[in-house]
Amino acid sequence: MLDFAIFAVTFVIILVGAVLYLYPTSRTASGIPGLTPTEEKDGNLQDIVNRGSLHEFLVSLHDRFGPAASFWFGRRPVVSLGSVDLLRQHINPNRTMDSFETMLKSLLGYQSGLGGGVTETLLRKKVYESAIDQTLEKNYPLLLKLVEELVGKWQSFPESQHTPLCAHLLGLAIKCVTQLAMGDRFRDDAEVIHFRRNHEAVRMCMFTCAVLGLRFIHIPHPFISWCQQIWSEIGKGYLDGSLEKSSSRKKHFEDALSEMEGVLKSVVKERKGKDFSQPAFVDALLKANLTERQVMEDSMVFTLAGSVITANLCIWAVHFLSTSEEVQEKLYRELEEVLGKERLSLENISKLTYCRQVLNETVRTAKLTPVAARLQDVEGKVDQHVIPKETLVIYALGVVLQDADTWALPYRFNPDRFEEEGVRKSFSLLGFSGSQACPELRFAYTVATVLLNTLVRRLRLHQAERQVVEARYELVSTPKDDTWVTLSKRS
């Protein structure tokens, strides 16, 4: 989403690591005000560590130096943009590469489709997005069923019981993504649990890069093991070289990635050349005449990105609804007026204007993706500042999403703000809605809409007493600890 996805901070680390010592740069950062290096070798890395995350570091940086600020990553200067106006000047609305897909493929070492020309890149992007759209259309009844199962389970809980949102909604997201992506293979819970172990290891590979706040939500569930390992080693291992220094960590990483890829490759082989009554994401890619390797890679990206973005969007949306009875009731009234007794269809989702506002405000208030980045491919300019070619440019989205000059009462959860056209345009510019939104986020919006529709029409949400929910600002922001709600039935 936005260029967040093209070279989101983790990918930038890899790029910088590759050229850090090969192309030394000057000690100035294009005259843009900012910090001087704290250390000769590491630049301002220790300052980032001291702040707790890259997002929190950027907040303090822009508070001190204004909307355009600079700092040092190693020996290379970095420019950070922290206002809607500067981002509007810098963002290329005609970019041809999907950010999240590009980032994850690069992080995982997947190069197919990345080295071609503009035409090939556009074709691959269209195939990927079309496959997600087809998958939702063909498997929408399955999505309804999975959500119904979860909400039905919640309906059976006593009203005094505390329900853990992170654990339950991560499980829902992973079920939705794996079953829609790979079909019948993951309709069996035992197969899903087996896949979860590897998903956790992949996820943990980014989980340890705490210095830049690029971790994903940690839940002690067997489904997440592979993903956590791969995510954490991609971030921390590439940053400090520790992956190469530890044979055991490197083997754990490689084993987790290999096992996940093995599962995906077997699914591709099983489904190639066959027709299914409910075609999956894999089937749509196979019909587009991609190679088996390309299909595996795209399936990996969709599985990882789709699960994490969907889970966290749902978690934050349900949490914020539990804090506001007024917003819940307004959403309930819209659902009753638009749908009546009908079930929600894909066609009706676009009619749920207020529901869309709730999800938009969830993304904004939670700062769902607080940091984005890209490498300046040609010399550019924002205001009076020239940004040289190959400069690392960070989009401080978390700063922009809480900017009082753009959003009235920015720390308040208020879906009504999206009634204003200017607010919607600013939000779209940042890549969170419209044609600029990444396909995984659009998928997440669909799942979250189905969840809120089913949940709010049956139950009322109540915030757990004396609960303080704090965010961990990572590649995708998540609660530091599991978030709890209680539920009561609507009469």
Verbal overview:
56% of the residues lie in helices and 9% in strands. It is an alpha+beta fold. The chain folds into two domains: 1-95 and 368-401, no CATH class; 126-366 and 419-489, Cytochrome P450 (Cytochrome p450). A four-stranded mixed beta sheet has the order 1-2-7-4. A three-stranded antiparallel beta sheet has the order 3-11-8. A hairpin with a 5-residue loop joins strand 9 and strand 10. Helix 3 (45-51) crosses helix 4. It is globular. The relative contact order is 0.16.
The total number of structural domains is: 2
Average pLDDT for all residues: 80
Oligomeric description of these chains: single chain
> Could you say what the CATH topology of the largest domain is called?
Cytochrome p450
| Alpha-carbon distance between the two ends | 40 Å
**Overall helicity:** 55-70%
Lateral strand order in the biggest sheet: 1-2-7-4
Which CATH class of the largest domain? Mainly Alpha
Report the count of strand segments. 11
> What class, by secondary structure content?
alpha+beta
Shape: globular
Stretches where pLDDT is under 50 for at least 5 consecutive residues are 1-26, 196-224, 235-242
Named CATH architecture of the largest domain: Orthogonal Bundle
How large, in whole angstroms, is the Cα Rg? 22 Å
